[in-house]
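Predicting holo structure, S-adenosyl-L-homocysteine bound.
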Amino acid sequence: MIDLGPLAQHMPEFLPGTVWLVGAGPGDPGLLTAQAIHALARADVLVYDALVGDEILKIVNPAAELEFAGKRGGKPSAKQRDITERLIELARQGKRVLRLKGGDPFVFGRGGEEALALVAAGVPFRVVPGITSGLGGLAMAGIPATTRDTNQAITLMTGHCATQGPEAVDWAAFARTGAPLILYMAMNNLPKIVPQLLAAGMSAATPVAFVTNASTPRQRVVVSTLATAIDDVAAAGIEPPTITVIGDIVPLRAALGFGDGRP
Ligand code: SAH
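Done. Tokens:
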């Protein structure tokens, strides 16, 4: 068990029969919070997502049961219901249930939905924030989320299921803000998103960066522009998990000395 030293006195007690919704950060175990490490050491059962890496699973209480609850086919909605039902069931068995998610549990991680289900079931829970990939991933790529010279705001948004139907996003409205767009889960829909941003008047020269597997040994950063982004993604074979950054903060990466040879 990892000794938290003087931090230990600040740790809440992980009570049996409760669920902790914990963020694991973008991947590097060094970016776990002390509360996440504390929870990993005490959990009776760990229910984890696909984005949680093996290195993090190595530091869980050796006596804990591990249950994978990531996406592997199946209908997403039914799957989510299965997960929340399982969390409730495990808590009612008197276990310390650790629900571990990539990044922050409340940022595009369905942690909010799971918390609502736990409240409805009367199961006590705690939320432990994590470093969200849309911010931590940028830092690891050498891209400041804000500087006074470039932007007064950033927009964290999902690119998934957001181009048509009832969930359609008004991309033009976001383009008009001028604030950098930081897109989660955008790889599949990029060919639909980029033309809408260009049609809204965003310059074709707008810098774009793709940060893949941020903070892990497989981290990769590809810099592009709105004009060439779709082709560059195909040519470079960029795959999820990737954060897409669109805006004038991207060139700061080079100014900070990050670039080829320094991922
Ligand atoms: N709760 C998570 C987000 C879950 S949605 C968080 O706060 O980070 C899944 C998306 O997150 C992925 O499609 C990708 O866009 C992003 N993501 C998660 N981990 C990442 C990583 N290590 N590198 C790049 N993108 C990542």
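The CA atoms of residues 21 and 99 lie 5 Å apart.
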